[in-house]
Recover the amino acids of this structure.
């Protein structure tokens, strides 16, 4: 069963001579429970695909569907209950004047949950934060803790599909592994479908089963992760990308043991 | 831990929403208290409030009682601590009663103008497009008029009196607030935390009131307190032109314009209310600066 399907998606910004085509004719499907990676260099249109999916990029053409339901240009509550997103920069993704409690309780209220009290505590527990973090402001949290809060917010409506926009690229190398392992655990626990964007091939290889490689707004190759690991690629650009990042893969911070360490309050 | 003890209020791990709120209030108060100048400003304003509230009991004379035999008495004369004006009225009593009018003007303008500006600015900045163009051009038109002249026109249309003067000042004071709020909104509206709340299905009204307003308010508060002196003076100017506070009322600005005629020979008649305006304006500025530091949690040293 397909969770996400895109066919012939074009996304552009601006009009007339100022028009920039960020994504051209992108097509792929993500099966339920699958983890799908989008890789490519900066500006290749990876994040734009996520923004188009969530309705944050207004001008697009083509077809997108979630769980078989075709998406129009407006997104409804049901969509946001099914699809959620974790943003790249945890320093920018949390409102500076809202405590963790306000962030989560507002989200829960918007989705019509009544038992916010117990849900907030279980959400915090689920991302490895104790109840002590509940009334903190973002400036009182570290980058990794903020990203955990952002993940808790994304999980609050109990979505089936999680879009991850480079969830670890703004974090310290030591924290990256923690967050990635947390995401893997959550995926097993909640049976989530992941669509993950990253420029780090090691991260994608660790997290995903299939990978799409993007260049200049176009998907040049879609392959299973085993093909990438054994360097069996067909497109030249993919081979270049792999060669370029081989040194990076060797010094990869990713720790394959899937354990989530609990973060203690300081 | 006992409720309302110091440790309970200063805890790092609040146990309930109520606890967290009281704790952050107390921490804010401590931060404000450590700012000597802001406390000085707050002290003056509390004193002003007390004076205004107890005016009938603490003023030595009736502020309207004329005594032409004792006109233009100097400072420190018998039973007139700050002297008398051209009609022999006790300046101290008039000053005390005038504090009520000053507070009234300040409170009304501070309620109307920033709220109107915030509303126009955030809606314009957040929605953008045609709404932005129309609202900002209206703002430009109001900004292009000299403030006092526009206020004059409004008062002439609405009739003289302190309420209409306040309304006129408010109508001319909101455009700068709208500009500030719009500028702040433009920097906020594309940020990830606004996108994130959109992804929870929040509508524009919730985003503007719950997510954008809290971030605009601290810069508006600073601007309001800086404008206070100007607001008091604008009210005084309208009073001087006969369009604000009407003659017998002891409005500080009107008192200055009355004393203007004798400023060379009887300097205290204009100087004393002038010093009062100066002190209150200074107090507002000091408090505003301190409040800005407290209201911005990003600046909290940690």
């Amino acid at each position: 069963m397909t969770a996400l399907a895109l066919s012939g998606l074009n996304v552009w910004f601006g009009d007339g001579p100022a028009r920039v085509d960020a994504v051209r004719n992108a097509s792929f499907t993500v099966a339920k429970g699958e983890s799908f990676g989008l890789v490519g260099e900066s500006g290749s249109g990876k994040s734009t695909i996520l923004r188009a999916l969530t309705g944050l990029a207004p001008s697009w053409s083509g077809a997108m569907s979630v769980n078989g339901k075709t998406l129009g240009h407006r997104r409804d509550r049901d969509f946001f209950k099914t699809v959620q997103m974790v943003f790249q920069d945890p320093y920018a993704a949390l409102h500076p004047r809202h405590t963790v409690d306000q962030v989560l309780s507002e989200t829960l209220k918007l989705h019509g949950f009544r038992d916010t009290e117990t849900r907030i505590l279980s959400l915090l527990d689920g991302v490895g934060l104790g109840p002590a973090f509940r009334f903190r402001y973002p400036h009182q949290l570290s980058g990794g803790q903020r990203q955990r809060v952002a993940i808790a917010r994304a999980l609050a409506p109990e979505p089936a599909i999680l879009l991850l926009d480079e969830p670890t690229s703004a974090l310290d190398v030591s924290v990256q592994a923690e967050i990635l392992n947390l995401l893997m655990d959550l995926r097993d626990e909640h049976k989530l479908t992941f669509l993950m964007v990253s420029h780090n091939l090691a991260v994608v290889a660790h997290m995903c089963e299939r990978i799409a490689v993007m260049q200049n707004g176009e998907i040049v190759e879609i392959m299973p992760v085993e093909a990438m690991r054994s360097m069996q690629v067909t497109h030249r650009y993919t081979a270049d990308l792999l060669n370029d990042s081989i040194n990076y893969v060797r010094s990869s911070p990713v720790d394959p043991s899937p354990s989530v360490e609990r973060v203690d309050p300081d | 831990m006992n409720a309302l003890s110091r440790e309970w209020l200063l805890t790092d791990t609040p146990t309930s929403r109520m606890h967290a709120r009281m704790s952050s209030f107390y921490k804010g108060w401590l931060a404000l208290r450590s700012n000597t100048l802001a406390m000085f400003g707050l002290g003056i304003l509390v004193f002003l409030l007390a004076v205004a509230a107890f005016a009938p009991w603490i003023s030595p004379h009736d502020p309207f009682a004329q005594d032409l035999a004792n006109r233009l008495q100097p400072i420190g004369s018998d039973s007139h601590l700050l002297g008398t004006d051209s009609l022999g009225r006790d300046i101290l009593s008039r000053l005390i009663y005038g504090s009520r009018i000053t507070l009234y003007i300040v409170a009304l303008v501070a309620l109307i103008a920033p709220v109107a500006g915030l509303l126009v600015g955030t809606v314009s900045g957040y929605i953008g497009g045609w709404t932005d163009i129309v609202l900002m051009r209206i703002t430009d038109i109001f900004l292009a008029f000299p403030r006092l002249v526009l206020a004059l026109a409004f008062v002439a249309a609405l009739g003289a009196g302190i309420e209409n003067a306040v309304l006129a000042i408010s109508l001319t004071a909101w455009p700068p607030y709208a500009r500030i709020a719009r500028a702040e909104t433009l920097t906020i509206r594309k940020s990830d935390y606004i996108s994130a709340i959109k992804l929870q299905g929040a509508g524009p009204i919730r985003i503007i009131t719950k997510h954008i307003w809290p971030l605009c308010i601290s810069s508006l508060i600073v601007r309001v307190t800086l404008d206070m002196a100007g607001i008091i003076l604008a009210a005084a100017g309208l009073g001087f032109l006969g369009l604000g506070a009407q003659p017998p009322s002891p409005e500080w600005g009107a008192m200055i314009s009355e004393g203007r005629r004798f400023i060379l020979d009887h300097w205290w008649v204009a100087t004393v209310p002038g010093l009062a305006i100066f002190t209150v304006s200074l107090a507002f500025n000091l408090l505003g600066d301190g409040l800005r530091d407290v209201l911005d949690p990003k600046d909290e040293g940690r």
